[in-house]
Amino acid sequence: MNCGNRTRWGRAGLAAAIAGLLAAGCTNLFVPKHKVLVDSIAAPGLVLNASGTSYRLVAKKSVVSSTQAQVGVIKACVDAALASKGMFEPPPHAAPDLFIEVAYGVDTTPRVDAGARETFLHLSARTNPTKAIDRGSGPEVWDVRVAVLGVAGRMETAMPLLSAVAADYMGTDTKLEMRIEIPQNSPNVSAVRTTAIKTLEASAPRAAGEGGPDAAAAAKAAVKPVMTK
Length: 229
What we know:
- The chain is an alpha+beta fold.
- The protein contains 6 helices and 6 strands, in the order αββααβββαβαα.
- The chain has a 6-stranded mixed β-sheet with strand order 2-3-4-5-1-6.
């Protein structure tokens, strides 16, 4: 038996296996991931065609009013995620196709370890058969709740991630809460964050020579990449 040849073949086989893994996109095995909880439900028989659908966001006051957060940042992230699916917000005096109720928050149970606390986003959509401007009275057509555990820092940092995942699962039925993994370098999440930053920059311009923080810097600071414990 030629042990030298055996060793060479072993190394060559290992190299080929590694090359195969890389070619197949298995580099994701080594990319840190966020563990996201998803629970969604949809009306029976719903066939979601998000592209071209108009919507208006409505805050769920019972949850939102008790949570300290930068509402503009959260709205910018949700808008960006929905826009990535072809949805749009109509002018203020136009009736939307859907009203989407938004709730968000952080589990503040005292005995829960910080690394196990949920930061969540909850979207619930209703139709608008009466063509109302401010609030829909139609039936609920889909509902999705997403959460990530152990966010280090402000809850707003999780919103690009949560908004992107919520948009992917709207109109689906997971049956039960499921856990998925999202790479920290996910292009979908990065796109939502970038669009949200641009929206915040545009909504808070600073005149040349005017004092105060630069709009671009303020927007990027508000939508920092999320870090989990």
